[in-house]
Automatic annotation (TrEMBL):
One of its GO terms (molecular function) is hydrolase activity. PANTHER family: HYDROLASE (PTHR14119), ISOCHORISMATASE DOMAIN-CONTAINING PROTEIN 2 (PTHR14119:SF3). It comes from Aestuariivirga litoralis. It holds the Pfam family Isochorismatase. Residues 9-160 form the Isochorismatase-like domain. Keywords: Hydrolase. It comes from the Bacteria. This is Hydrolase.
Length: 183
């Protein structure tokens, strides 16, 4: 399946102030998440954000918080976003409105992101895991998470693939603006 603007939502998982600095590849993941957020905004793809226990782990990092706009932010303690009732209900509404694809990015790849991906796939969502927009404390954990996600039927892609699939064609103002971000 290709990522389509009208059928997709973006779920940004736990890109938080006290968590991100401990990640291997955290700066790249943050930069890639910013590109995904800009693309979602430009192409009217709904965004949902989760924060794992923000009282202890802080809020979404400022650079991404500035890109989120009015997107709903859900505080959670469950590792999987699907196991938080508010988030689950929110994602179901998108699915029922004809958006069965979830573009998934965030941290930690091998904990909250992987568990969310597995649960969403089992629930009938198409899950698109953006590998370069994720990070873990250890690179080996990130790699294992991607392997495990594939075992759950998740498509693993990179940011550039998502942006160009969402765009669908060249020659538009959106193409001009967004292609510059990934080149």
């Amino acid at each position: 399946m290709l990522v389509e603007t009208q059928k997709s939502t973006l779920l940004l998982v736990d890109m938080q102030e006290r968590l991100l600095p401990a990640m291997t590849g955290g700066a790249e993941a943050e930069a890639r998440c910013a590109i995904l957020l800009k693309a979602a905004k430009a192409l009217s793809v709904p965004v949902t954000v989760s924060e794992q226990y923000p009282k202890g782990l802080g809020r979404t990092v400022p650079g991404l918080a500035a890109e989120i706009g009015n997107a709903p932010v859900f505080e959670k303690t469950a590792f999987s976003c699907w196991r938080d009732q508010g988030l689950k209900d929110h994602l179901i509404v998108h699915h029922e409105a004809g958006r069965p694809l979830v573009i998934l990015a965030g941290i930690e790849a091998h904990v909250c992101v992987m568990q969310t991906a597995a649960d969403l796939s089992a629930a009938g969502f198409g899950v698109i895991a953006v590998a370069d927009a994720m990070a873990s404390r250890a690179a080996s954990s990130h790699n294992l998470a991607l392997e495990r996600m594939r075992q759950h039927g998740v498509q693993v892609v990179n940011t550039e693939m998502v942006v160009f699939e969402l765009l669908g064609r060249a020659g538009t103002a959106e193409f001009k603006a967004l292609s510059a971000l990934v080149r």
